[in-house]
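R.M. (postdoc): so does anyone remember the format we settled on? I'll just put the structure tokens first.
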């Protein structure tokens, strides 16, 4: 996810306004930024790796770029790591066009190869640069005709802002599947990824739909369809404050990111399943590499570690390769028995967690191959790995991870199925069925999210608890770890996750009248076993909140039951975790906690 902004006016300088707008969009991506401004028929630009302030310092707060029309971009890298060259805007070879883009061009390699054959030279690793050269390639003097040809050739998602030096008094924009709004001012007009970027200047906006082409001048804004017919659009008045707008109208980033999970999971899965096959371009593991693996270690911290616990069950079930999931800070000081025939998977949202990075170095120093699952392109862990599979969750602002956790889970599924197919520990029929079920997951997550009211009600009943237990077996145990952490870190209520079969070996002594036990019972062939464990705690006075699939009943077993849609057992953790994220969120909201920035915590722990 990135942020784009565009400005055109009669008198005011564009650059400072663009920088201001980008500052409001940094939550959409902040690894690099750039602006381009048109002046006397010439496009001048500046771009910089790092936070926006680097660009601002580089351009003297925008004063060094003169002109009343321009475009800007703040980046969350997906193709090509953060660098000056990979930052937007991208210019065409002649310098006639400058382009900013939010989205992913799925057929950029095909287009890039064609343009190179036509003599175009690329300087960046991005997908977006293709668009700048396509404008040059198709341009015959009419920018609108050129735009129509370009969007006809491009596949994927985009919100584009385009400057053309032949059109100094206007610029053009279009969107498909990425958000874009138009701001209507007095003698000035705006385009942006969302209202936060322009709210200071105007509250009059209109929302652009897919394949609508916008032509902005200082005096007016015209919107056309691809037949060049002008469209009538409703102008709306925004009544949000800036802070609410940054969260897209949600009260907290955390709930926004919980709601974004279907989209984040789809963005992570879809580009990796092509023609019924899993395609992991970033992974160089061969069939023989996998066949010769002695062991797989999964090393991570916190929620990423909890993904690893799920991964252990999934990989061992599918690939029959021994997997050991180890907390990174323990792994690095345990003198681990790891060597060249081992694969070490490091999972990290930030890609900067010190414990995980140091554990990675220990593994590499002992000859192991390292594959990392990371959400930040070009981060330290990604750069230190032999292979990287990126999650495409977009920037995660809330300290308590949700969408990054969920996309890490889906990468774990993809990798497990990919390896199992390579070494034939699953049949082609199973492979096909896994992929079918995996592609349905985003919609099932969306369906699970619909149950917010029941979860909010339960949170209102239990937010004063002093201690809450989460229990489950197998994959349910793995998810109970995450449910317990979510609750603890944002509501500050003590909580423990326990393997349901282990409770009776000591901890059950803590159960007393009214103790809340959240019992996960989704794993089909362990349901009865878990029910036995539930009875052990109810006989000692516990109140039980059961969580199971919609085809099962827990009436007479649990005091309250949350049901989730059914799917392949292997993928159930992606659904089971949703009510637990929501429960932690609503409990913390009832307690009035600082949900996005919980006390004592940081989004990325870059110290030991
Ligand atoms: C999760 O909600 C926490 N914020 C924390 O446990 C986090 O998962 C852990 O610090 C690992 O961070 P990373 O994924 O960026 O490496």
């Amino acid at each position: 996810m990135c942020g784009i902004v565009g400005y055109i006016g009669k008198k005011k300088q564009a650059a400072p306004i663009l920088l201001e707008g980008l500052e409001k969009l940094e939550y959409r991506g902040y690894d690099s930024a750039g602006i381009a401004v048109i002046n006397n028929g010439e496009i001048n630009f500046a771009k910089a790796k790092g936070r926006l302030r680097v660009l601002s310092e580089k351009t003297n707060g925008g004063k060094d770029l003169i002109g009343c029309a321009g475009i800007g971009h703040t980046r969350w890298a997906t193709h090509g790591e953060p660098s000056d060259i990979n930052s937007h805007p991208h210019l065409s070879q002649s310098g006639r066009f400058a382009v900013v883009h939010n989205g992913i061009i799925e057929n950029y390699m095909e287009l890039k190869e064609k343009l190179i054959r036509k003599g175009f030279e690329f300087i960046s690793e991005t997908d977006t640069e293709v668009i700048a050269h396509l404008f040059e390639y198709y341009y015959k003097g009419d920018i609108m005709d050129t735009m129509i040809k370009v969007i006809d050739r491009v596949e994927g998602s985009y919100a584009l802002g385009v400057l053309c030096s032949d059109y100094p008094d206007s610029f053009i924009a279009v969107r498909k599947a990425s958000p874009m709004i138009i701001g209507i001012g007095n003698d000035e007009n705006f385009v942006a990824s969302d209202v936060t970027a322009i709210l200071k200047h105007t509250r009059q906006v209109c929302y652009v739909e897919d394949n609508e082409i916008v032509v902005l001048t200082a005096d007016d804004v015209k919107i056309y369809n691809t037949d060049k017919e002008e469209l009538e659009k409703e102008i709306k008045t925004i009544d949000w404050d800036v802070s609410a707008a940054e969260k897209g109208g949600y009260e907290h980033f955390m709930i926004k990111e919980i709601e974004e999970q279907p989209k984040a999971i789809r963005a992570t899965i879809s580009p990796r399943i092509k023609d019924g096959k899993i395609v992991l371009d970033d992974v160089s593991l061969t069939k023989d590499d996998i066949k010769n693996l002695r062991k797989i270690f999964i090393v991570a911290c916190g929620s990423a570690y909890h993904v690893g616990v799920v991964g252990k069950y999934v990989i061992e079930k599918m690939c029959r390769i021994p997997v050991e999931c180890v907390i990174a800070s323990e792994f690095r000081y345990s003198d681990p028995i790891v060597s060249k025939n081992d694969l070490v998977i490091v999972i990290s949202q930030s890609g900067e967690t010190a414990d995980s990075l140091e554990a990675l170095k220990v593994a590499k120093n002992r000859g192991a191959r390292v594959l990392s699952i990371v959400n930040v392109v070009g981060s330290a862990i990604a750069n230190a790995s032999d292979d990287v599979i990126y999650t495409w969750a977009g920037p995660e602002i809330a300290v308590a991870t949700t969408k990054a956790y969920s996309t890490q889970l889906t990468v774990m599924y993809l990798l497990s199925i990919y390896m199992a197919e390579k070494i034939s520990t699953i049949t082609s029929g199973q492979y096909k069925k896994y992929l079918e079920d995996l592609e349905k997951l985003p919609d099932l997550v969306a369906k699970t999210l619909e149950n917010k009211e029941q979860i909010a009600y339960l949170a209102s009943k239990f937010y004063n608890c002093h201690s809450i237990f989460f229990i489950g077996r197998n994959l349910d145990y793995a998810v109970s770890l995450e449910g317990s952490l979510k609750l603890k870190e944002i509501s500050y209520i003590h909580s423990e996750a326990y393997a349901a079969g282990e409770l009776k070996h000591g901890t059950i002594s803590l159960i007393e009248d009214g103790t809340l036990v959240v019992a996960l019972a989704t794993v089909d062939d362990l349901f009865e076993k878990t029910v036995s464990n539930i009875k052990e705690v109810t006989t000692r006075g516990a109140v039980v909140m059961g969580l199971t699939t919609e085809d099962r009943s827990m009436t007479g077993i649990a005091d309250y039951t949350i049901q989730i849609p059914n799917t392949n057992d292997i993928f159930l953790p992606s659904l089971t975790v949703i009510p637990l994220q929501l429960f932690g969120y609503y409990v913390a909201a009832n307690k009035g906690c600082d949900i996005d920035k919980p006390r004592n915590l940081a989004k990325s722990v870059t110290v030991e």
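R.M.: ...and that's the designed sequence above, right after the tokens. Also worth knowing: Residues 301-304, 348-350, 353, 356, 399-401, 489, 604-605 surround 2-deoxy-2-amino glucitol-6-phosphate (CB under 6 Å). The longest strand covers residues 32-39.
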